[in-house]
Amino acid sequence: MRPNGLKQLAAAGTPAINAWLSSDSTYIAEVLGHCGFDAVTVDLQHGQFGMDALPSLLQAISATPAMPWVRSSGNNLAEINKLLDMGAYGIICPMIETAEQAQDLVDATRYAPLGRRSFGPARGLLYGGSDYLNNANDTILVLAMIETPTGLENADKILQVPGLDGIYIGPNDLALSLGISPALSWKETALAEHIPSLIKLCHQHNKYSGIFCSDVDMAADMQAAGASLVTPGNDVQLLRSEASQRIMQLKEARS
Ligand code: 3PY
Ligand code: MG
Prior knowledge:
Elements: H1 5-12, E1 16-21, H2 26-33, E2 39-43, H3 54-62, E3 67-71, H4 77-85, E4 90-93, H5 99-109, H6 123-128, H7 132-139, E5 141-146, H8 149-153, H9 155-158, E6 166-169, H10 171-177, H11 191-204, E7 208-213, H12 216-224, E8 229-232, H13 235-254
Parallel strand pairs: 1-2, 1-8, 2-3, 3-4, 4-5, 5-6, 6-7, 7-8
Helix pairs in contact: 2-3, 4-5
The protein binds 3-hydroxypyruvic acid and magnesium ion (MG).
């Protein structure tokens, strides 16, 4: 089976850099995949598109060196089975709060005996290779999002669920649910304590830690804190930030 580059990076202790696709443009998906990101994650939770957009987005990412990942819209076995069958090599599942919910996620993503994933890998076979069935459980990365106080409280138990590779921290929902404005810098809030503790906990359990970052400075801090994977903003944030920067530069050059 095609190896999962993200697992190889983690084994070497090298942090991965992940792109986040909130639009349904196959062109943008392909461009991001050629930029040097290790993975491109299609956001089915907040992206403004439905499941029908997924096959072409995953095909576009598969035409690049980046690994095709998806954030599912929820912890739903039928949806997650389909995403894997379409060739997703990583699943990030939002709002996991308990070990039982993490077990449901494992059930949806792993073939028996680890889980209850149904057989029908379709495009997974084309992208992964003919030995997909025997190697999918060990190759595909599965991350549970920790983004609520209950998830935070249960993180230790969640990380002990067999078949789960690790967690992906959602700092915006975590801030919101802790009564903190997501507009504040994480460094000025209780997140400054919670986020590094979560990453440390993953190291203690030898598990994977990913995190969404609002900007490149936060992503650099998270790399330094030992995160396995950082997402330095989504596609639209990258576009806005570069466009604003160029406009500002041209306006300043006038004076
Ligand atoms: C969060 O920060 O809550 C996220 O879900 C990031 O996408
Ligand atoms: Mg969230």
